[in-house]
Records
---
Amino acid sequence: TPLDKIRNFSIIAHIDHGKSTLADRLIQVTGGLSEREMQAQVLDNMDIERERGITIKAQSVRLEWKGCTLNLMDTPGHVDFAYEVSRSLAACEGALLVVDAAQGVEAQTLANVYQSVEQNHEILPVINKIDLPAADPEKVKAEIEDIIGIDASGAVLTSAKTGIGIEETLDAIVDVIPPPKGDSDAPLKAMLVDSWYDPYLGVVILVRVKDGTLKKGQQIKFMQAGTTHLVDRVGCFRPKLTQLDQLGTGEIGFITAQIKEVAQTAVGDTITDAKRPTDKPLPGYQEVQPVVFCGLFPVDAADFDKLRESIHKLRLNDASFTFETESSAALGFGFRCGFLGLLHLEIIQERLTREYDLDLITTAPSVVYDIELTHEGGRIELHNPADMPDPNRIEEISEPWIKAMIYVPDEYLGPILKLCQDRRGIQKNLTYVSGRAQVTYELPLNEVVFDFYDRLKSISRGYASFDYEQVGYRPGDLVKMSILVNGEPVDALSMIVHRSQAEARGRHMCERLKDLIPRHLFKIPIQAAIGGKVIARETIAALRKDVTSKCYGGDITRKRKLLEKQKEGKKRMREYGNVSIPQEAFIAALKMG
Ligand code: GTP
């Protein structure tokens, strides 16, 4: 295809503004799908995506419109996948900015638009859901101009639901979005945009060819990974998989090359010809690092092997989460896993529960701390509070910070500011546009992984939208808080907290456990402690009744039977210095919010 007949674009939108519905309509109108096939949202592949309405993996669809080839990239909409978003944007020359005609501009829209602007994209505003009674396209246009600062006079008005404005959108794409540039005679240079595991094809790689041609049978080299592979399939999605002989300059499509694991394919890598390589790889390759960690344990210890198998399988398709085995006195054997963010954690946890039918306990999520040891002991990365070195070995401990952008209707601003303040936030900016406030805060990530998002939503009745990016590590007065039951530390419940928050958190946890741990024949102290210093304490009163007292003087076999019965009941308990704690107590304690 000649370059001037190609248009590569992505769709950026806040969750629920209608990105997937619009994409489906574009596919339908250009003939890729029948009405019946429209029923199922085609761009979102996985069940979970559909149910939660989130697009996780970037995919691409090729459309034919009035003699032009349009490649539509579907980008993940959430910050956890920011790097994937930036790669898929880098594969395009423009973007449709979909804004709900009734809701207007929201925080995530902003974050994605700024990324798109950074890529020098041409942005075509699409005001969707104009069929809604509350739709106010003129107001939304003004918002786009005021808040985002782009011209909205050429905005297309659509209803993806009823099918209004779809052809106009296609025409506008051809008119507004520039064709790709590139040199078809130069050595092959292509970007690895995304990859996923397909049970029939093996690893499928989505590519954008920048220069040269990518052909079936070609020996290619991944410049970052340093590996070579033989291309055995080349093609595109229309949205059905279509095999082609080659992908030319400016085109987007897929290849397979008998690769077994997505871990071998790094998003952002440059693909070139092994025999005639380009001398300059594409800029901006970045390794994605997990930032949130938590332990995953099977509720039933017998499921450990099944959990291991399932985690290995999931990893085949998602190279961005990490895991290693972990053992905990309270929870038995499990895995410590690393994720790109909280949403990523939830998705993996849910897939394990649902697709692999596992009952899991998730420990409180924690971030990665950077610790400088005393006596030139070097630095360590702390992934698990249980591994915290002794305080006198720590010179300095640093934690990751984020810049959070919150967008909220005026009336909820007060409580939102208080929430940010309580979470050690530093206010950076506050502006008002058409009845809504946009606040920027810097916050420690560890305060955000701990129920921040839920609080934000409940305080604002769901109206606040939130997005964040990481801004690096900063030193902090952080301490490990241990929970002791009858004098014994319970590893699964220890956490790293800021000293100023320790007492409140400690008290909360002790109160909670007091209600959760059954009474025993003796008094049980529950303590929260930093080092040797107790900062909060509760006591579970002793139980009077003794099961054996009933059989006082009775026959010995009856007495033994009773004791046996009691023992059985204890099996699912964990022993802490003579205290039996039911598994459920840990689960409940960890679910605190
Ligand atoms: P994410 O995949 O979560 O980013 O959401 P999305 O932006 O892809 O939104 P999606 O297409 O899933 O649409 C969200 C909801 O809005 C769905 O219930 C759609 O049926 C509805 N919707 C989409 N377009 C329109 C429209 O033009 N009018 C109306 N009334 N509803 C629409």
Note: The longest strand covers residues 394-409.
---
Amino acid sequence: SRREGFSTIPNVKWEDVGGLDLLRQEFDRYIVRRIKFPEDYEEFGVDLETGFLLYGPPGCGKTLIAKAVANEAGANFIHIKGPELLNKYVGESELAVRTIFGRARTCSPCILFFDEVDALTTKRGKEGGWVVERLLNQLLIELDGADQRRGVYVIGATNRPEVMDRAVLRPGRFGKLLYVPLPSPVERGLILKALARKKPIDATVDLIAIGRNEACENLSGADLSALLNEAAMAALEEKLTAQGSSDIAPLTIKEIHFNRALEKVSP
Ligand code: ATP
């Protein structure tokens, strides 16, 4: 996006996130309330991890949660894409890492989000070669400066935690590992509800029942978003067709549109 690497408070609210209640609780304790009530955490001498790794299959809400956490905490959000950092600044990526952490400190409280963080942290001596190695070392230096990065919370996201260098997963670095799974049948319904907030869904449509439908098995949040979009398209097409005829144009997205969409979408 245009704001890549720059800070801003994201507009993703928790209502936009379906399911993932446990993660929300964890982030409430570890980040949101810590930013809102720093004196209380200080008073009780609570010392908690500031680095997190979200891992799990693609399209299940890792980016979305990170943004919602920042929104809820009223914190700035810096979005870094691992592979871009590697490629865009070849030879300068160490400097880029330093600059990014500096920027995060300047705009704290801040969530520093590293998407596809595995690209920056592959096991040393493997895929990347010396570029990755030097970048990784710089990243470790920055992560270890936790005392100087008050108010900066680092969240990494990956679909392939197994390729990451173990050293980055130690406490104080990406120390707290949080699994973001494929949604359960009920959670699929909750995700559909969250996604449907901005769409004219007919009152007769039972999104929870659709989530439980066998045809939704193994769909991710991103797949469910595609499903909803297909259903909206089906309703829109019907409306546009009806406008030139004597048929009655639909005003909402109905069951029949979801049924058509379900035939098209697969994981
Ligand atoms: P990747 O590993 O591919 O980066 P990700 O886990 O970061 O995936 P997101 O980018 O957060 O996935 O999700 C992609 C889109 O899918 C979101 O923008 C949203 O539309 C939808 N989505 C995924 N999970 C959820 C969820 N739990 N609730 C609501 N929408 C979701």
Note: The longest strand covers residues 152-158.
